Every structure is written in C-alpha cells, then in structure tokens.
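Apologies for my clumsy wording, but are you able to produce some protein sequence, whichever is easiest, and the tokens describing how it folds?
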Amino acid sequence: MDPSANTPQLLRRTNLRAVLEVLRSASSVTGTDLIEATGLTRATVIAVCDDLVARGWAREADSPRAEGQKGRPARRFEFNENAGYVLGLDVGIATIRVLVADLAGTVVGGAEAQFPRHGGQPDARRRILTDAVDKALEDAGITSAKVFCVGTGVAAQVAGDGVVVPGQPMAPLFDLGLQREFGEVRGWPMLVENDAKLAALAERWRGVGAGEKNLAVILAGERLGSGIIDAGRLLHGARGGTGAMGGLELVQGVGNEDGIAKLARLWGSAALKDGHDGRIRDLVGPKTNRASARYVFEAAADGDPVAQEILDRIARRMARVLALVSSFFDPRLIVIGGAVAASAEALLPAMTRELAGYVAEPPRLAVSNMGKLLVPTGALRLALDYVEEHLLELVPQVRRPG
C-alpha cells in the first residue's frame, strides 16, 4: 500500500486536534484567533470548526455586534464541555466516593456510600459501589451513555496495566470485577491507579501544589503512602511501587507504615490506659480508654501536655519519613493529605524543624486543602487525561445511535 494514502486523513486529524487544543484553552475564539494560533488558512479553520460542531465537540458562541458595526459579526466558536463526562472514584476500605465532571473538569454531581464493617464481601462491595455510581449520575442529571471514562483510586499497589498487584493483604477488597461491570457492560474505559498517586495528580492540578513539576504527596491517615511527580510526570516503577512505604520497618524511629491518625489514636489510648486524666480524658469521657485522633489533636490545641507530647513524637517520626522521600526523589514541595490533613497543620512547625536536621536543602511542606475530595479529584484528572489523548476517537452522545 502506498504510504502516502493516509496523508489526507492524518492531516485532517492533525488540524482537528490543533483547533481543539485552542478551543479547550479559551472561552471562545474567532476564526482569526484560530488562524493566528494554529497557522492554518481561513478556509481550513472554518471547515475544521464546522466539522467539530457537527461532531459535537464544539459549538458556535454568541457574537455580540459592536456599536456601528455593519454586516454580520465574526463567527465565534467554543469547546463543548458537555459533549461528555468523566467519573472519578475513590474506593477505600470503608467508603466509596464518586465525582462526576464535565470535560472542562467542573464537578457536576457526586455520591458517597459506606461499605460494610470490616470491608464486606466482593459482591456486596460491588453492589454498593455501582449503586453509588448510579446515584452520582442521577445527581449530575446525565445518563451512562454520556460517560467517556472512569478513573478509580484504590488503597493498594497498582501495576502499570491498571491491575491491583496480587498478594497484598487488602487486594481482595479491590478485586471487584469492575472492568466487566463498567468496561464490558457499560462501555466505559476503566482506569485504576493507587490512591496516593491520584492524590499527587489532584494536588498538581487544583491543590496547593498547582503547577509544581516536582512534587510529593503523602497520604498520612491510617497508613502512609506517597505519590511522586518528577519533572511533571507521575512516577510508577516496574510494578507501580514507586512511593510505596513498605520499607519503613527498616527505618530507625519509624518501624512501620502507620499514619498520623492511627498513631494519634494508639498513643492517646495508651496514655488513657496508663492513667492520664487531662484534657484527652475530658473529651473521651470516663467509660472508655479509646481515644480518637481528633480528640488528641483537640486536647493538644487546648494545652494538654500529654497530647502535645504525642503530636511532637508524631512530628519527629514523620520528619524521618519526609527525609527519605526528600533524599530519594528531591521534590520542591511535599504535601500531607488524607483524613488528617486539616489537623496536620499543627505538626508543620516541628516537622519542618526536624527535617532541616536531616536534609541539607529541605523541600517546602504544606497540608492539602482538598479534604476527602483529594483522591476522587485525582481520579477525575486521570480520566480527563485519557479523554484528551483519545478525543478524536470518542463520539459525543449527540452522534451516538440511540
């Protein structure tokens, strides 16, 4: 076959993508704007815009008439962010969170549900998850046919092909047959990634690390895990293990992957069992020795010396973890995220001070302001990246049969 046979088709796709990229980065543009941005001829630009409008990827915008203007105003075009939608899922051990966003990344719906205590069986977890997805679609006011892609974050190591690495204690909780449920049955491309890695995508997209090309995000609630962005690229490793914290048992002064919330709870409960009767006891009450992380942080803020000492121990321990991440990956910024992010602000001064003793030029430390939406927002970004890469292969609902 003549290798030049596909040249017109390739040229057409190149022109379509060039115009689409401009449309996606601006509110609305004229043909003249597109000519200047792409270098294409006017005839080509107009033909491409008409093609994109017919496909459903673009629409004509209102063109206000200037005072005294004669003739028709210049046609204006804009990207149709409602041509399709993406889903972002955060599948934890206890909770499923779902976000729905248009192609501009604007969240238009969502849902949240709890899994059974201790995780539950796969069939029950899958049913709860799919029900949450359906509720999110209903909340967004869209049908399944308008979904282009699903990004999913799980609290487990995920290989480059999106498969949860077997052999992990929690792996069975995330092996729910979602590729069949969503991929084969509903026709949605299904992307699966480790939750800490998605947290890094979210922070670089919309968080305190927005635009930072060298960034580490540490999820620090119950267990520690990190996502690393180096030179603007999310790192994975051969089996998705980049940023995993499984080696912390080898680190003196750390010893395991326990996160900030778990440590605060364990050490606060131990203090109560040993007879502490300060502010932690006031908050917990006289009938139990089980302290929550929230009560330990609150007691420390109220001046309880035992609670303050617990937070200091956590900060010094975390500084060793941060030093490892800094030494291995050299980020400019490390963000603490997860369920304890809001409380972790109290740890920043001590962590910063301790880290300076381990690293010659320590990175800046910050806490995430995205709360429980951190991982599902990263899942949205993962799905949007897929859509942007495959834009011309996808078909908006207006062009689909049925």
